[in-house]
Specification:
Shape: globular
Strand content: 35-45%
Number of helices: 2
Mean pLDDT: 80
Length: 168
């Protein structure tokens, strides 16, 4: 038994074990994409070689404007930071989760946090991705085709200001 537990600790995390909370509401999604932990507005510039192995880089933000306008915590408010969540459309469109998602779309609701909890293979929490100050920017339905028997998916894209990875 101990040997089995030690062995599973070294297996890679499965990409199908996660929980999504939009605000305080847990909603099941089948797919998440667009997660970037680096700010896309930052580029490296002026690579300098020091000695044989050391390299010094200087990071430069692409934001224009006064330094007073930039945020000191490194978060981005450029609208380029997006996360996409996908789920099947439920047959009962008046389901409370579905009504909540439509409410977000109709009212441009600011969501303090979207949390994606990444689970280990045994179901315990490995890490959380917390996306702050989120707004739903797009809600799309998948293609409707008479010759297909696949599910209708809805794809929701949220703009966020900052993402933080918390390792448990």
């Amino acid at each position: 038994m101990v040997h089995s537990k030690m062995r599973t600790q070294w297996y890679p995390l499965s990409n199908n074990r996660f929980i999504v909370c939009i605000g305080k509401r847990e909603i099941g999604f089948s797919k998440i994409s667009g997660v970037e932990l680096m700010d896309p507005s930052v580029v490296s510039k002026n690579l300098l070689r020091i000695g044989k192995k050391d390299i010094k880089t200087e990071l430069v933000s692409l934001y224009e404007g006064d330094e007073d306008d930039s945020q000191s915590d490194g978060s981005s408010d450029s609208g380029q930071n997006t996360i996409t969540l996908e789920k099947a459309l439920k047959p009962k469109l008046t389901d409370s989760d579905q009504v909540y998602l439509l409410h977000l779309a109709e009212n441009n609701v600011l969501i303090d946090c979207i949390s994606v909890r990444i689970l280990r293979n045994d179901g315990s929490l490995a890490a959380s991705l917390n996306f702050s100050n989120c707004v739903l920017t797009s809600l799309k339905l998948s293609e409707l085709a008479a010759d297909s028997n696949s599910y209708i998916n809805q794809t929701l894209t949220f703009r966020y200001c900052k993402v933080k990875l918390i390792i448990e």
